[in-house]
Amino acid sequence: MPVVLRKRKAAQLPAEPPAKKVAKVAKAATKSAPKAAPKAAPKAATKSATKAKDAAPAKSSKPAAKVNGKSEPPKRTAVKPVIGDVITLEGFGGAIETNDGEKTTLKALVDKSKAGVVLFTYPKASTPGCTAQACLFRDSYATLTAGGLAIYGLSADSPRANTTFKDKQALPYPLLCDPAATLIAAIGLAKSPRGTARGIFAVDRAGKVLAAQVGSPVGTVDVARKLAAELAAAAADGGADDDAANGVAEKVEAEKVEAEEGEGEKVDGDAAAGTEDQAKIVDAEKAGE
User: Fold this and answer.
1) Where is the composition biased (Low complexity) (predicted)?
2) Catalytic one of 118, 130, 212, 224
3) Alpha carbons 225 and 211: distance in angstroms, whole number
4) Would you place residue 279 in the very low, low, confident or very high pLDDT band (cuts 50, 70, 90)?
5) Would you state the pLDDT for residue 27?
6) Predicted local confidence at residue 266, as pLDDT
7) Is residue 130 among the annotated active site residues?
């Protein structure tokens, strides 16, 4: 009988343990490991951050201005007086001094004037543009002051520098020294961050602003000439009004005198007529006898 060979089955590899069992083993290992200490540091850091946030100043509701891509806090700008404004002269612009070293104020200068004060500002004494401006006011001084305006130059120069400037150019008006630029800033002619703009400012005795602007040497003196001309015209109109009023008064007085004389003549005529009638009556009585 022939031998039959049987095939052997291939050996089977052992099956991998279930994943759950591995997870359980890992979990058991985790439980057996010592627990880590609680993280106290982060909580402390959180509390510190909260306190710092509460202590920080509140942010402004207005957005900061950006200059060259960087934020800067908003700047306060002084209100510049304009023509027609009425300023309070008391304390306006603070104390200044003349080139002679005399302390004064704008109010004191206005009080001494007849019609008001004209201030022309210049950046620096004895420089070409400022010399030209000062000499223009010098050459027109008689015309500018004829109506009662008082002329002053104003700069941030020292009394010594302004005295040298005044003497060298034979200026007939005082030069005011304002090193702190308090008055220069108050009249709106201070440059930022520092310096003085060339310009003109004029105010009458009541504190009304007559001129307030920047300008060239010629431009500033032209403004002053215009103010002087307006004052002269107003004075002439006032004189004409006075003459007209005097004429009317004289006419009324003349009419009054004429009326009184006419009334006197009438009374005299009535008296004469009465006398004549009385004489006629007497003559009639004599004829009857």
Assistant:
1) 25-50, 57-67
2) 130
3) 12
4) low
5) 52
6) 53
7) yes
